[in-house]
Write a structure and sequence with these properties.
mainly alpha, elongated
């Protein structure tokens, strides 16, 4: 009886936790990308004055975004796994086995797709900010 109640409660808790984390991540990414774009407008204006097209400017913006993503993931993933292994020493059960028990590997594919969707949606306000000022050579900074 207890096991039948426990598993749905764990799944409910994990689902609510992931939803809260997704919304928080979306809000933080959106504000950070928008402020980064606003602070870089003077640099973008200098590039536009020197003949850079708007399409090339978007390529620069996207390459900066991918660079930050890679620089965050490269240390983040091994560090997270190392921390999980470190805490495993002090806990009575293996954390990774518990995660894989409750969530089959197919779920991780959906989580990864959700992370990509959150990142893409968070980039929309910054791209809109750049698009509104595409014809202004000097990109009037606000």
């Amino acid at each position: 009886m207890c096991r039948k109640v426990f598993i749905p409660m764990v799944l409910l808790f994990a689902t609510v936790l992931l939803a809260i984390l997704a919304l928080t991540t979306f809000a933080v990414l959106t504000s950070q990308l928008l402020s980064k774009t606003q602070m870089s407008m003077k640099n973008y204006a200098l590039l536009r004055i020197n003949g850079l097209s708007f399409k090339q400017l978007l390529h620069i913006w996207l390459s900066q975004l991918l660079g930050v993503l890679i620089m965050g993931c490269l240390p983040g993933i091994p560090l997270s796994l190392a921390l999980i292994q470190q805490f495993h020493m002090k806990s009575p059960f293996h954390i990774l086995k518990a995660i894989f028990y409750y969530f089959p590997p197919a779920v991780f594919l959906f989580i990864f797709a959700g992370m990509l969707a959150i990142a893409a949606l968070a980039a929309i306000p910054s791209l809109w900010y750049l698009y509104k000022r595409r014809d202004s050579v000097l990109f009037d900074a606000e």
